Amino acid sequence: MTEDAARERLEQVWRSPTGWRSLSDVNNSVVGRWYLVTAFAFFLFAGVLGLIIRAQLAVPENDLVSAATYNQVFTLHGTVMMFLFAVPIFEAVAILILPAMMGARDLPFPRLSAFGFWCFLIGGVFVCGSIFFGAAPDAGWFMYPPLSTEQSGIGADIWLLGLSFIEVASIAAAVELIVGVLKCRAPGMHINLTPLYGWYVLVVGAMILFAFPPLIAGDFLFELERALDWPFFDVARGGDPVLWQHLFWIFGHPEVYIIFLPSIGLLAMIVPTFSGRPMAGYSWIVLSALGTGFLSFGLWVHHMYTTGLPAVSLGFFSAASEAVAIPTGIQIFALIATVMLGRTRRTVPMLFSLGALATFIAGGLTGVMIAVAPFDFQVHDTYFIVAHLHYTLIGGMLFPVLAGVWYFFPFVTGRQLRRRVGIWSFWLSFLGFNAAFLPMHLTGLLGMPRRVFTYAAGSGWAELNLMSTVAAFVLAAGIGLFVWDCVWSFLRGPSAPRNLWQAGTLEWLSPSPVPSYGLRAIPQIESRYPLWDTPDLPDRIDKGQGYLADAPEGLRETLVTTVLDAQPQQVLRVQGPSWLPALAAVGLGGLFIFATFKWWLAVAASAFVFLPALFVWLWTGTAIIPEKPDKDIGGGRRVGLYLSGSRSTGWWAMFITMTGDLTAFLSLIFGYYFFWTIHEDFPPQWATGPGWVWPLAAACLALLAWGATCAARSSNAKGRVPLARGLLLAGMVLSLLSAAALLAGPWLTGLDPTRHAYPAIVWAIALWTALHLGTGTVMQGYCLLRSWFGKMTPAHDADIHNVTLYWHFALFSALVTAATLGGFPVLT
Amino acid sequence: MLVGRIHRAGTACLLSIPTLSLTGCVPDQSALHPASVEAQQVATLFWVMAIAGGVIWAVVMATAIYAVVGRWRPTSERFADRFILWAGVVFPTIVLATLLTYGLGLLPSWTGTQPALRVTVEARQFWWRITYERPDGTRVETANELHLPLDQVTEFALISPDVIHSFWIPVLGGKLDAIPGRTNHLRLTPNTTGRFRGVCAEFCGLSHALMAFDVVVQTRGDFDDWLSRQAAPARIPDAAPLRAAGCLACHSLRGVSDAGRIGPDLTHLASRKTIAAGMLPNTPEALGTWLTDPEAVKPGATMPGYAMLPAAELDRIITLLGELE
User: Fold this and answer.
1) What is the C-alpha to C-alpha distance for residues A807 and A802, in angstroms, rounded to an integer?
2) For residues B198 and B167, what is the distance between their CA atoms, to the nearest angstrom?
3) Chain A contact probe: residue of B26, B68, B197, B298 with most A CBs at under 10 A
4) Mean pLDDT of chain A
5) Which pTM was predicted?
6) Nearest to A263 by CA among A352, A141, A365
7) Among candidate residues B73, B90, B158, B170, the one with its CA nearest the CA of residue B119
C-alpha cells in the first residue's frame, strides 16, 4: 500500500503540465525531446538548401537560382548545419539521455535547459527565416571580412547577432551538462564507472567552454565594426582581416571535434550492447577523448594554410593536425576490438555504426592528406575539401546520430522502429551519400573551386556534378524514409518491452515507456554495466529499494554526489514547470533580434522583459532555504538539503560559466597583442591614451571591491551580518568607481575608436571589463537584498559564495585589462 | 623512380574514367595534369597518399567486417590492449611521421636561386591586374591573361585592394591568398608550354564563380617577344570615341591616357584570347554583349552597361577595341 502511495506521489510531483501549459515544462525528458525535434527540423531545412545547391550545379551554366540567391543558400546551408543541427543535436541527445544513464531524475538546472532550448528555437527561426526575405547572410559560413564587413547587407548582422544568441544556448547547455556529469551521478558511480557517453559529454562540454567564447569575442568586435565603424578588420585604419580568421578558426576547428566526439560516445554505448560485452579499452578511450579535445585547439591554422604563413608555422600545424589522427584512431580501434571480443547481434543501429565507420575513416584519411600543407595548397577551397568535410561530418556525426536515434527510440517513446524500413533507409542514405560525395574528390582535383554558383560547359566537371546531384537526391530519400519511419512508429509502432536491447547501462533499467519520474528509486552503483552485473537490480528498484523512492514533501528531488567517488552530498530540489525561462528567452531574443534592425526602443523594451524575468527566476528559484537541514534518502542515510561553496552545483555552474567568459576576454586580449605583432608602431606614436594613471586607479579600485566582497562573505559566515551588508554596499560603490575609472582612461585622453584599430581595441577591452565590473555591482546588490529579506543567512550563504567566485574572475580580468591597456604602452 | 611510375599510372587510370574522356578536351585546370615542377611533386604526393590511404581503409574495414562476421574470436582481454596499441598507436605514428617528412619536404624553399621574373598580381572583384617587372626596372601592365616563360622561376607578389581572393593555377601549383593590406609571395616553375586556366579560389562575393584568367606558358624567346609587344603604347587611329563614351575614366590606354585605374588596361586588349576575366571569347559579338549588359554576364561587375549608346557608336568602339593588337 505505502509502496503504491510513494509511487503515486512521485508520479504527482514529476507529472508534466498539460494543454497549453505543457510549454512551461522544464523536465529534461520533455525539453530534450523538443530540442531533438527542433534540431532535426533545422537539419531537414538545411538539407533542402543542400539539394538546391546540388540542383543548381547539376548542369553547367545553370540558371535555376541567381548568384545572389545561391550565395545565401550555401552560406545558410553551412551555418544551419553547424550551428543549428550539429552542435544542438549533441545538446539535445545529452539532455534527453544523460540523466537516466547516470541514475539522476533530472539535470541540476532544468530551467536553464528550457531557457537554452527557447533561445535556440527563437534564434534559429530568426536566422533561417531571413532567406525567405532575401536577407540571409551571403558571405559564407566563415564570414571573412572585409567582404562581410564592408559589402554585406543586413544578412551579416543576422548572422552575427542571431548566432551569438544561439551560442548563449550552447554555453547554457555546456554548463548544465558538465555539472550534471560531475555532480549528479548515482551514489557509488565513481568517476571511472561513469558510462563512456558521460565522459564524452564532459570533454565536449569543456571544449564548448573554450571554443565558443573566442567566436563570441570575434562577434563582439565584428558587430562593433559593423554598427559603430570601429576598424578592427579594416586595413586602411590599422585593422587586419586575418585577426577574424584566427578567432573564427580557434572556434571552428574544435567545433569539428565538438560535433564528432559525442557521436563516438553514442557508438561507445551502442557497440558494447550489441556485442554483449563491456567496452574494451575503457581507459584508452577516456584518455584519447581527452587528448583529442586538447589537441583540437592546436590545429586551427590548418584552415589558413594559404594565407601566406611562414614555413615554420606550416610545419608545426601540419604535425599537430597529423597528431590528432592518433587519439581518433585509438577510439576507432577500441570499438573494433570490442566487436571482435564479443558476439555481434546484427541490428539496424549496428548497421548504421558500421556505415559510420566506413565513412568516417575515409574522411579521416583524406584529413591526413590535407593536413600536409603542400597538398592542401592545391585542394584548399576546392570540392576535394567539400568531399572531405562531408565524409567526416556525415560519417562522424550524422550516421552515428541516426544509429543513436534507432537505439534510443524505444527508451524515449516506448515504441520500436521497423527493422526492414531501417535497413532500407540505411542503404539509401549510405549509397546515396557515397555516390554523391566520392566523385567530389575528383571534381576538386580537376580544379573546381568551392562556393561557385556556376561553371563553364567546357570545364570537364559536368558529368561528375550530375552524378553528385542525382545521388544527393537518393541520400535525401534515405533520410526522408528514416524520418517518416520515426513519425509512423511514434504513432503506431509496436510497443517496446523493457530493456529491448538487453543493454547493461542504467537508462534501460526503467519499465517501458519510461515514467515521468524516471527510475522508481536511485540505485547504489558498483560496476560500469549494472544491469549485466546485478541481475536482480530491476526487481529491487521496482520495489522501491533504493534512494529517493518517495517524494513526501511534494518536491522534485535528485541526488548530488561528490565529483570523484560519487558519495551522496545533497538532496537537490530541482525546479518544476515555469514560464520564466521561456519569458527570459523571449526577452533576450528580442534584445538580439531588434538590435539587428537597430530598433533601439524595442531593444530597451526587450531588456525590460529579460532582466525582470531573470531576476524573478533567480530570486524565487535558487538557493532556497529548506524547511529542515537534512532528510532520509533511504537505506538509513541522511543527506543535507542545502549546500554552499565548492560542494554546491551553483558554485560549479558559476565556475564553468566564468571559465568560458574568461576565455572570451582573453581572446580580446589576444586581439590587442595580435595588432602589436603586425604593426611596427603599436601603440601608434600619436595615441595619447589611455595613459597609466586611470587603468592603475581602476585596478586598485577593483582590488578593493573584490576585497570588500571576500570580507563580506567571511563576516556573514561569522554571523556579523550588518558588517557584511556594509561591506557589500562599499563593494558596490568601489566596483562602479572602478568601471568608471577604466572608461575614463580612453575617454579623457580623447581616443577616437573609429580612427584606428588601436583605440578601437582599447575601447573594446575597457568596455568589456567595465561591463563585467558593472555586473559585479549588480551581484553585490543582489546579495545585499537577499540578506535584507532573510534569504541569505550566515548558515545559508550560497549566493555570496557564488558572487565571490564571480569576483575572483572579475578581479583577474580587471588586473589584466589594466596591465595591458595601462602598463604595456609604458613598457614599449 | 617508383613514385614517378605511380604518378603516371594514376594519371592514365584517371583518363580512362569514362566521364572524363566524354568531355574530349585536355584538362587545362586540373591539379592532376601538372605543367610545372611544383605541381608535379604535389600530384605525385597525392597518388602516393591516395593509394596508401585506400589500402589502409580497405584493411581497417576488412578488420571491422571480420569482427562482425568472423568465426575466430580472441579470448583474452589482453588482446584488446595489444590490438589498440599496435593498430591505434604504433602503426599510425610510423605512417604519419613518414608522411610528414616526405610532405613537408615539398614546402617552398626561399633560399638559393633568384627568380627569373617578378610579377605583381592584383586580385580585384572580379578580375586580375597583372604587372610585369622588366630587368631595366620598367613595369608593363596587362590584365586577365598571364604569360610565363618555360623552365624559369617566376615569383608572384599577390595583393588585393578590396576583399580576400586566392590566386590559383591548378596545373602550375598550389594557391595563395591575396589579402588586403598584405603582400604574399608565390613561386612557380612551369615546365610545359600551353594554354591553361587559373581561377579565384577564395569566395569573394557575388561573381566569385566568374573570376578566371588565362595562362600561357611559352619559351623564353616567345615570352620576351610578347612582353616587348605589351610594353609598347597602344596603336589606335582615333581614341576619341572611347574618350567620348567615358571608357578612359576607368581604363588605361597607354599612349593615350594612363588615368583609368578602376578597370583592366586596354592597351593590347585584342592580343588577349578572352574578355571579362576569362568569361567570354574575345570576339566582336562577345564584346557587344559585354558592353551592353555586363550585369548579365557577371553579376556585381563594376563596369556599367552601355546599351544607351547609338548602335553605330557602339560598333565603332567594338571595332576600335578589336584593333588594339
Assistant:
1) 9
2) 7
3) B68
4) 96
5) 0.96
6) A352
7) B158
Average pLDDT of the segment spanning A364-380 = 96
Position B112 scores a pLDDT of 65
**CA distances to A13, A517, A568, A755, B99 from A10, in Å:** 5, 6, 20, 64, 60
Cα A717–Cα A721–Cα A724 angle in degrees, nearest 5: 80
Chain A CB contacts of B168 below 8 Å: 381, 449
CB-based contact A66 B64, cutoff 8 Å = no
Residues B247-286 have pLDDT tens digits of 999 999 999 999 999 999 999 999 999 999 999 999 999 9
Separation between Cα atoms, residue B257 and residue B251, nearest integer Å: 8
Confidence (pLDDT) at B18? 43
Q: Chain A partners of B202 at a C-beta cutoff of 8 Å?
A: 144, 306, 381
The amino acid occupying position A646 is S
For chain B, the first-to-last Cα distance in angstroms comes to: 46
Cβ pair B103, A372 in contact under 8 A: yes
- Report the gap between the CA of A140 and the closest CA in chain B (Å): 8
CA distance A387 to A383: 6
pLDDT band at A1 (very low <50, low <70, confident <90, very high): very low
Cα(B208)–Cα(A454) distance, rounded to whole angstroms?
Answer: 10
- For residue B23, name the pLDDT band (cuts at 50, 70, 90): very low
Whole-number Å distance between alpha carbons of A641 and A631:
7
In terms of Cβ atoms closer than 10 Å to its own Cβ (0-12, 13-18, 19+), residue A337 is buried
Give me the count of residues in chain B. 325
pLDDT in tens, B222-245: 999 999 999 999 999 889 999 999
What is the 3 state secondary structure string of A142-211?
Answer: CCCCCHHHHCCCHHHHHHHHHHHHHHHHHHHHHHHHHHHHHHCCCCCCCHHHCCHHHHHHHHHHHHHHHH
Put simply, whether B137 touches A (Cβ < 8 Å) is no
Q: Which of A692, A656, A647, A643 is nearest to A809 (CA)?
A: A656
For B298: left if phi > 0, alpha if psi spans -120 to 50, otherwise beta; the answer is: beta
Is pLDDT of A537 > 60? yes
Residue A392 — φ and ψ, nearest 5°? -70, -40
How many Å apart are CA A301 and CA A253, to the nearest integer? 9
The grid coordinates of residue A39 equal 534540431
Position B22 scores a pLDDT of 42
Question: Which pLDDT band holds residue B72 (cuts at 50, 70, 90)?
Answer: confident
Instruction: Report how far residue A221's alpha carbon sits from residue A243's, in angstroms, rounded to the nearest whole number.
Output: 10
Summarize pLDDT for A750-781 with one digit per residue, the tens: 999 999 999 999 999 999 999 999 999 999 99
Q: Determine the average pLDDT of the residues in A788-802.
A: 96
Contact residues on chain A for B106, CB-CB shorter than 8 A: 374
**Closest by alpha carbon to A639, among A525, A521, A517, A547?**
A547
